[in-house]
Amino acid sequence: MRLEGEGPSGGAERVPRLAPGCDPARLSLTPAEGYLLSRIDGATPLSLLRQIAALPPAEVDRCLERWVKEGVVEWSGSGARFGAAPAARAPVAPASRPAAQGIDPSLDLPVEMQQRVIEFEALLDRPYHQILGVAPDADPKTIKQAYFGLSKQFHPDRYFRRNLGPYAPRIESIFKKVLEAYELLSDPATRAEVQRDLAAAAPEAAPGPAAASAASGAKAAPDPAAARRLRARMHGLARHRRAFEERKRKAKAFFESGMSAFKKERWLEAAGSVRLAIAFDPQNEAYKAAFSDVQRKAHEERARALLKEADGAYQLGDYRDAFRLYDEALHYRPFDAELSHKTARLAWKLGSDLRKAKDCAMAACELAPDNPGYRRTLGQIYKAAGLFANAKRELQTALRLDPSDAESRQELKTL
């Protein structure tokens, strides 16, 4: 199985961006293409776009190739055609670069990512589907893909022990909002409540002539029909207020129930109750503030349950089910190097998805670059895919890290 874009140049790690002056609104796109284009932000590499797009990887490549030819997209740092390594640029002296507000090159956070954080913060007061970059009627799979794509960028664990300066709380705030959006839209019950709240918040129609006249204080001749309409409107407003107060009462009850479950360490129950509290009273900041901590505990509980089930399946020799469960657990622990490695080895041994195996093995190596076992696995996967130069590089790295690694030595002899 060929892994497109791989090779010594590391093509899959290139980063596309929208070309200057591009107006995406003029393009005729399918919903899946529109979602892919919305993820092109100058910070997300091709390898990640292939994972999070609602399209097959080959189709992602074809879209990018077409958009590059049309002048819609270009590769960061170059005007290179699709499939070519970015052209080298002469370094720009720091003094000649316009200093973007809040950008600090001395931090352990790439300048491109700092800009991404600044831009994304401006979206946090928008509706949930816009925060995730999906259509209002997006299906659960698309919502999940969007969340996991953003989670890989903004999960605080990704930046563990890095000097982020003022960006640490900003990334935490973004992740909390992304998590909130995902949880409320992925649950059918809470999504219905969110959509109901959006509809209720829509601006009312402009008042008719009679209402405008009354508001201006102008005297008008008695109009029995207008009086009936006014009474009906007042009755409707009173009914709306009662419904509003009832929703707030339900929200408070859900929140108190959730906090009670949280104290008893019933994390999943707590998360479900607080999620409903936010859905019924989406403007309550206290509920939102508690939600992130509750939901993280729930995710950890879900991950533990999945890992226990996966380990059991593995011991019984049901490797395909074990792979499925490890892969799902990885969604809740995206920066667990050992879990990424386990998932990679199973995908490789099953032979059904070498791309998935490669992505997981690369993630493990990025998280723990000095682990020789992770390097060896990545080399073996490259070898299985016929990418011998890449395989040799990783196996030599494994041997350099552990000269006694007989398995890596033997693999190198067969290349």
Summed up:
The protein is mostly helical. The protein has helices at residues 31-39, 46-52, 57-69, 111-121, 128-132, 140-154, 167-186, 188-200, 209-216, 224-263, 267-280, 285-315, 319-332, 337-350, 354-367, 372-384, 388-401, 406-413; strands spanning 16-18, 73-75.
Task: Please describe what this structure looks like.
By secondary structure, this protein is an all-alpha fold. Among the domains are: 84 residues; 80 residues, DnaJ domain (Helix Hairpins, Orthogonal Bundle). The protein is 63% helix and 1% strand. It contains 18 helices and 2 strands. The longest helix is centred in the middle third of the chain and has 40 residues. It starts with 15 loop residues before the first strand and ends with a helix.
